[in-house]
Amino acid sequence: MQSWEGRWPLVGRQSHLDSFRRELLAGRIRGWLICGPAGAGKTRLTEEFLGLAAASKRRTAKAVASRAAAQVPLGAIAHILPAGVDMSDPVQGFHAVAQSLSEPARPTIVLVDDLHMLDSSSAALLGQLLDSGTISLIGTARTGEQPSDVVDGLLQRGDHISRTDLDHMARDQVEELLQRVLDGPVSRRALHTLYGASDGNPLFLRELVLGAIAREKLTLQDGVWDTSEEPLPVTPHLRDLIAGRIASSPPAVRPLLESLAFCHTLSLADATALADRSDLEHLERSGIIEISVQGARVTVALAHPLYAEVIAAETSALRRYDLALRQAERIESHGLRRRDDALHVASWRLAATGTAAPELLRQAAAIAMNSNDHEHAIELLSAIKTDQHTTESRVLLGRAFMHTGQLERAEAVLAEADAQAGNDHEKIITATTRCTNLFWADPDPARAVAVCAAARATLSDRSAAQQLRLMEGAMLTVGGSPVPGLQILDDLPDDPPQEDLDVWLATITAKTSGLTFVGSVERARTLSERAKAAHEAVGEGKLLPHPAMQVAPLALALMEMGEIDQARRLCLSAADSLQATHSPVARQFLAFESARAEWLAGRPVSARRWYAEGVATARTYHLDRVTRLHMSGLMACAAVTGDIDTAASLVTDYEDIAASGGLTGEESLGMAWLHAARGELSRARDLLRHAADRARRTGHVVSEALVLTDIARLGDPKAVQERLTVLSTQGDGAFTPARARFVTALADMDPQGLMASSEELEHMGALLLAAESAAAAADAWRRRGDARKVTAATADVTRLADLCEGARTPILSTIADAVEPLTKREQEIALLAASGKTSKAISQHLTLSVRTVDNHLQRIYLKLGVRSRGDLALALKHEEPSDRA
Questions:
Q1: Which string of DSSP letters, residue by residue, matches 603-641?
Q2: Closest CA to 789 of 765, 754, 763, 821
Q3: Does residue 881 carry a pLDDT above 50?
Q4: pTM of the entire structure?
């Protein structure tokens, strides 16, 4: 087990340490109080304070206050008092203590943990010692706790006590901490799971990580730390910590806490029926419950997700039965007035008695589905007896299975619904859902198309048959045949209809993706934005796992438009919105778009995290639709960052997975970059030529352009220059033309054209391509003997490559290790010149001759690749003043 078990890094607390260090060195430390909720890291931070004091040769002492110690006067600090001191005489006692703690010219630094629990005698003595300058006091206090009057007086000592309030860690701080202690990247799923379970509490987070690793729920997969889909285990230590905190609450509130653990949220009226308002106020101050106001509705919930688990584990089965039935009856007595009432009542009755009315279960399941709680929907619908199922309830169950990745179970249920469907409406909803499920289950879209065609032949309504025909077109478009698929989808209206919105949402996603595939990017973006707005307006789409799915085709269009950073941000936001829902199909699909955006941005480590998450989801749920693309991307990222062993270990699994047809040609990138990392460039290029041919035959314009660009990057730009130029005219996206200009300049070894391409690609967010373009320019200028321009271009390469997360490519290998650094004297002269000073002024300032200053400036210009003071100011990030010295 790693060394961080005992002491975690103080992520997000460095500013507090720096402040304390400054005050300590300046001799201004009198008192410092760290306040915050339990587990916020107060003790950890103050121990670091004490360590800094000890390192500066200061005398230190530590005490821990507690309720037990507070029962005895001076109990908490007895061990730091001199032996034999008689505190019955306050004057003599204080003198003896002060003398024992006195240090010449500097007070002793005393740390008291949980200062709010001090007994009054200890607080009074410490206050006197603080006032006399005998000690400097560092303390921690828990937010919400009410100290005694004497302790409160100690804490309120004006300027003597500096106060710092800590809160739980933000998600980006949790991410930074996890990557430090685990020494590797963490998947977005793992981050969301650990952050959600810990709520940013460092102590809880530590215990969750230790427990998850010990039980192999947090593992290193393909170079990325990832969690399983199962709930995180709670360690005995963490359970004891939480149980102890809850046990400190008044016994009268136990029924309320049990109800909240089981029912999650209660109205204020229901909560006050179980506990007094004064008890509610105490629980809120203590951070055990949260009271939320939403309009006219006030609700009560436990303040931390782990509290419910611990309380529920201590609640008997009979008690849970009583709680569920009582709460269900309470809601029913008021009538099912609120949107979620049916869901709550059905869930509680199911938990208490194992059954509920079929119509209530169907209604509750629909609400759960609309909230993306598909597992809950499965639980509710599975409680309906076979002979009580309707076509609609079977389709709903099939959709829930599909959305949770249980594709075989979904097909079995949907086949039953198909056989039961009696009218055109039932046949359509069954066929479209079954078709969508088969699409995700099988990379070959033939079965999905066949289901639609068979159902279409039985319909009496021509408009209904047209809906299924559109579904066939959607399957073809994203299944590998965008050109014929789009011909069918040409009949799909651009605007969302009032009726049959589900079919439109499902098919417009395919249409917008297909339009980008073939290069019609502007229209794809417009339609994607329209579909995204329509889907978000209605919430959960019945044929699609989540509204976030509409982001995928929009992000794809944005990438091809050269707006890669926007695509990255959009994907990240949408992927985060999916983490709270159990929608593996949607999560895997959007993970691919997130990964592709990071790859095109030249961020292989970030891309690898998303590809690894997609692969892990595929392995768990047997989702093969985009798995080969995920696997290929994972191989490419590992290879480009020098992890050849991991890339090679994926080859067998990659070869066992069939291609899905979407983005044809891109599934070969992983093998190609693995060959390149091994130095087998000709083999990599041959593989990519075959991939480009496949993309060309199927009409995947953007994929062909991507693959051809990589052939150029791997050493043969002349072979693809002409074809890329043609492709740049076949679509209206900006990225393919930019790549074509880069490849043309690379083929011609045109350094000025390459530098222009570098600037253009950087503006689009394609940082690795921009770095390679600048590297090629440096190489071209090196061959022409222009050292100054080589240096300037190399500086650009270094700057851009630093943003590319350690990516290694053949073009970047042509650059020297680093720009020759400036000497200390050159740095000084450069800064003075950049600030606007003349050579004469610099010579006078440094007591040098003007000639020496000019000679230094020439060497500086050569090293930095600049020609003038103005260029120098830009290179050093200075603003050149208008007046000269």
A1: -HHHHHHHHHHHHHHHHHHT--TTHHHHHHHHHHHHHHT
A2: 754
A3: no
A4: 0.76
